[in-house]
Amino acid sequence: MALGALAVSAGFVAPVSAQPSTAELTWSTCPAEYELDPATDDCASVPVPRDYANPAAGTIDILVTRHRAEDPGARRGVLFTNPGGPGGDAIGSNSMIADQLPDSVGAQWDIVGVQPRGLAHAGAVECDTSPDVLAGMNLGFLGGTARAACEGDAPGSTAHITTENTARDWDEVRKAMGEDVVDIYGLSYGTVLASTYATLFPAHAGRIVLDSAVDQAWLWNHVLWEQNDGYKGRFYDLMDWLAAHDDTYGLGDTPLKVYQRWSDRIVEEAGGNPTLAPPPAQIGDVPPGLEQVADAYRAGVDLTGPARVQFEAFLRTLADPTHTQAASSIYVLTRQALPARNAWPMLARMIRDGAEAAPEGAGAPDPNSPEFQRAVQAQFMQSIVVCNENTAQARPDRIPGWLFSTFVTGDLFDAVGYSFSAGPACAGAPPVTALPPLDGQALATAPLLLQGLRDPQTPYDGGVALGGQMGAHLVTVEGGDHGAAMQGGNTVVDEAIVEYLETGSTGITHAPEAPITAPL
Fold first, then answer.
1. Fewer CB within 10 Å, N side or C side of the chain?
2. For residue 477, which of 445, 446, 448, 440 has the smallest C-alpha distance?
3. Phi first, then psi: what are they for 405, rounded to 5°?
């Protein structure tokens, strides 16, 4: 089905007064660590086969959380959610997703999170999290290290942790809830999970919102490589934004001046300077007295800038190998903040005032805290899923780039993509399965695809490719926020979601960039 304003069929319109089924689930208070409000959220467990191909392997209990429809009289059904990852905790995120989706969605749907297998409360896998293991993960040897750390003396025991098996878990939950059809909101990796469910169980998949989708052909080595250029481009968007808000933050009125303040702060914090190329020089960067040769001056700065920052970083590393940009919390947070503009004001204050300006909880968690352990478990499960079903061929010719960016410069804008594309990320962990070819032809209602033009996490072209496989109706969203529905304040995106979920179609094909709602 072609992408466009008329790509969504009307499908079946759910009755407004659909009542909850009398499912044989015991709903009760959710585990305390999630701090969910029992007035709105409850949880239940569903036993599912550990290995769908081998029933004799026993079962695991999958935790399910439900944010109940806020207007029971208008209830339409259930909306399954997934926050991405792989490895995203669906219990902790479900209430947050419910809060971010349009109010009328929360009023009319029970919003349901199904914990992905391998995580806490879903057949949790016990992994060795000793410092030596974590050091191997930090160097980019993700899959082999995770598989060894989590399988222990039972080789092959993590082979069941796959997207397809999690999709089959969804159907077991659907049946346990007594629902014939479930609607879905999938974010990022959640679009792959949602599309897998729709491919396997099209008769039980209703209206599906794919927010920030991923090309199946890129899974998995190639998707991280595709992010490299997107993150760099989004970094320069950040520099432009900070220069445009010089009156608020005082970091400089040109992107190059802002870059230098950012670089100085990283050197101050970690001893090493960033190696990402500086933005192009502008007229405002030309020193007084050189106006007559401004074009030549700017050309010279642009020509020498990339080599200069690489050479400066090399000299600092020679003087002290610990002087690397990756040791700077501001540098790490910069990359993390790029797909979400609501984090940019906080980052701007950190560049201006130092890392101490970060709000509580913005830095790395205490290694002994439950938050840290959950983050480590999520990283292990992500690596296991990615390598278990990785079908994108490695590129050994990119090993020199991986070695340089990982062991010499510590440049996260290159190292992450190189570690997967070159092959080290899944070294020692060959694939055990492959996703089925994703296909939406059997769906009664075509999915809705929301895709950001400059989203670095899930690049636009890849999302459009998955949308084509699923026959989705495309809404192109300006800007580069990851998760069009999760940023808040985008009334056009909200309108498209509500219209689609309520009727099965929408004529909206384009949405503006979401405004920044965080205080400047």
1. C
2. 448
3. -75, -25
Q: Helix 344-353 crosses helix 221-244 at what angle (to 10 degrees)?
A: 70
Say whether 426 sits in a helix, a strand or coil.
Answer: helix
Residue 48 to residue 171: CA distance in whole angstroms? 10
The one-letter amino acid code at 327 reads: A
Gap between the terminal Cα atoms of the chain: 43
- In tens, the pLDDT along 144-200 reads 999 999 999 899 999 999 999 999 999 999 999 999 999 999 999 999 999 999 999
**Which of 346, 354, 340 lies closest to 520, judged by CA?**
346
Task: Please choose, from the candidates 397, 500, 373, 517, the residue with its C-alpha nearest in 3D space to the C-alpha of residue 447.
Answer: 500
Per the CB < 8 A criterion, the answer to whether 474 and 229 are in contact is no
Q: Is 69 helix (H, G, I), strand (E, B) or coil?
A: coil
Provide the 3-class DSSP secondary structure of residue 88: coil
DSSP conformational letter for 122: B
Tens-digit pLDDT profile for residues 138-158? 888 999 999 999 999 899 999
pTM equals 0.93
Residue 489's closest CA among 454, 472, 514?
A: 514
Residues in a beta bridge with 338 = none
Cα(284)–Cα(256) distance, integer angstroms = 9
* Dihedral sign for Cα atoms in the order 427, 431, 432, 435: positive
**Which residue's entry shows tokens 């478990």?**
377
| Matching residue, tokens 């913005």 | 362
3-class DSSP assignment, residue 207: strand
Rounded to whole angstroms, the Cα distance separating 160 from 142 reads 18
**Pairing outcome for strands 448-452 and 473-477:** parallel
What are the distances in angstroms from CA 129 to CA 71, 117, 148, 164, 230? 44, 19, 11, 27, 32
Tokens at 285, concatenated: 């960067």
Instruction: Return the structure tokens found at 242.
Output: 């900070």
CA 94 to CA 66: how far, in whole Å?
A: 8
Could you tell me what percentage of the chain is helix, strand and coil, using 3-state DSSP and rounding each to the nearest 5? 50, 10, 40
Q: Which residues, 6+ apart, have CB-to-CB distance to 283 below 8 Å? A: 294, 298
